[in-house]
């Protein structure tokens, strides 16, 4: 059941032109994911808008670059964990061991989250392709009116902009981490006349990484590893936001259709729009999409939310204790984590709100009109199951432990602050 039900069917979709030269051009489905697919190509992830390969050979051939990047990041995680062990056991000396451990734990935790998200993207590639096919069918449905298309485009445009800005923010943050050692080396050379070789991250290698020929290769390896973890994180997050935004938009459409099932034109006539079967089928499709999203993102988001509390605690501690030259870097890191968690919880909240609104839409329809009852005496009773089901909202959860809502974002902030105050008390 895990994979076979999500194998997509290859279909051809016509390109729809703008209905009027004076109106904003309607965006196409692939455009909503276009920037994210380009970002993920940096780490070799295949274009998930293409049909999912049905053979193992085809899947491996399309993912060679992604596998290489995954192995590179895996070694970085191993090297950082081994370096933390050396610090804790006293085999590696440093003057400020607490600050050094906090930096190492933050970097290692961020890399572990990125590694988990890359694994999730690879493992759930069939689920992702199935979701893309489902949402593409609904996006290009011929049953949509012009008003539906305008609402659809208006709902997705902000999400595309938000995910683009979030991706650029992560790129800036990683660039600060990657190239800060270059600035420090140049500054040390100018002030002291000595050229001290530094690295963006502290990773253990089974050889002398500062040797002349090896140093530049190791530095490039660490720089690209930083790019891998950033792209893996932002690619996973953007896919979640885009898919949940598509689901939220479909729920809005469903609410509008439910409310407009019956339209009273005047006292003598009744225009029937009671396409109840279509609404029920559409609702069931969206419930299956929600279950697929839950299966794809639940475990990884649980790790993300759990680790984010610790990471933000560490960043707050480093901001209050580190040298002023490092405060900007740690502040950027913490702001990126905060923004990431907020966006994930915000789009989870959108699904909860819009799925609940279906009950109000059904109740607000003209089910009580006498002419509606004359045409179908059971019409009002048929709405009861819809209202009852909508009163149990769709809620995505992080491993059935944390609901992905704004309230969870607040809880993560409170937990991080509690950890920080406890750490400060112990250290003082």
Task: Explain the overall architecture.
The structure is a single chain. α7 packs antiparallel against α8 and α7 packs parallel to α9. The chain is an all-alpha fold and 428 residues long. Helix content is 72%, strand content 2%. The longest helix has 48 residues.
Task: Give average pLDDT, whole number.
Answer: 85
* Number of E-state strands: 4
Task: Specify the overall morphology.
Answer: elongated
Proportion of residues in extended strands:
under 5%
Report the biggest beta sheet as strand number plus sense, adding barrel if it closes. 2 strands, antiparallel
SSE layout:
Layout: H1 29-40, H2 56-62, H3 64-88, H4 97-123, H5 125-139, H6 146-192, H7 212-259, E1 262-264, E2 270-272, H8 276-321, H9 324-364, H10 370-375, H11 379-390, E3 397-398, E4 402-403, H12 406-427
Provide a quick synopsis of the model.
The chain has 428 residues and is mostly helical. Helices cover 72% and strands 2% of the residues.
Key traits:
single chain; 428 residues; mainly alpha; two-stranded antiparallel ribbon; 4 strands; disordered N terminus; olfaction; transmembrane
């Amino acid at each position: 059941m895990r994979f076979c039900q999500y194998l997509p069917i290859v279909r051809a979709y016509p390109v729809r032109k703008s209905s009027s030269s004076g109106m904003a051009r309607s965006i196409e489905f692939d455009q909503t994911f276009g920037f994210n697919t380009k970002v993920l190509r940096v780490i070799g992830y295949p274009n998930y808008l293409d049909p999912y390969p049905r053979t193992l050979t085809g899947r491996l051939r399309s993912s060679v670059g992604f596998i290489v990047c995954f192995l590179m990041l895996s070694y970085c995680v191993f090297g950082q964990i081994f370096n933390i062990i050396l610090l804790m056991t006293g085999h590696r000396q440093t003057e400020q061991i607490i600050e050094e451990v906090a930096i190492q734990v933050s970097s290692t935790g961020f890399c572990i989250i990125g590694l988990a998200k890359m694994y999730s993207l690879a493992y759930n590639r069939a689920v992702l392709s199935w979701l893309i096919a489902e949402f593409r069918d609904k996006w290009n449905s011929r049953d949509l009116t012009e008003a539906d298309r305008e609402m659809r485009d208006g709902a997705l445009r902000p999400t595309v902009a938000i995910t683009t800005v979030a991706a650029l923010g992560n790129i800036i943050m990683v660039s600060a981490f990657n190239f800060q050692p270059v600035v420090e080396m140049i500054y040390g050379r100018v002030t002291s006349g000595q050229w001290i070789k530094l690295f963006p991250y502290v990773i253990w290698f089974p050889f002398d990484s500062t040797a002349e020929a090896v140093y530049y290769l190791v530095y490039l390896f660490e720089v690209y590893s930083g790019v891998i973890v950033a792209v893996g994180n932002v690619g996973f997050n953007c896919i979640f936001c885009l898919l949940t935004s598509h689901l939220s938009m479909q729920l809005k459409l469903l609410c509008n259709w439910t409310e407009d099932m019956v339209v009273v034109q005047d006292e003598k006539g009744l225009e029937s729009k009671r396409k109840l079967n279509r609404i029920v089928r559409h609702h069931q499709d969206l419930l299956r999409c929600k279950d697929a999203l839950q299966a794809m993102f639940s475990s990884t988001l649980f790790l993300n939310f759990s680790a984010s509390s610790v990471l933000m605690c560490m960043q707050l501690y480093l901001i209050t204790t580190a040298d002023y030259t490092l405060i900007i870097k740690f502040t950027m890191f913490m702001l990126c984590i905060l923004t990431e968690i907020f966006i994930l919880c915000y789009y989870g909240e959108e699904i909860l709100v819009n799925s609940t609104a279906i009950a109000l839409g059904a109740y607000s329809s003209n089910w009580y009109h006498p002419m509606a009852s004359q045409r179908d005496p059971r019409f009002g009773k048929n709405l009861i199951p819809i209202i009852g089901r909508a009163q149990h909202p769709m809620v995505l959860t992080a491993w059935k432990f944390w609901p992905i809502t704004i309230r969870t974002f607040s809880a993560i902030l409170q937990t991080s602050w509690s950890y920080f105050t406890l750490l400060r008390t112990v250290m003082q």
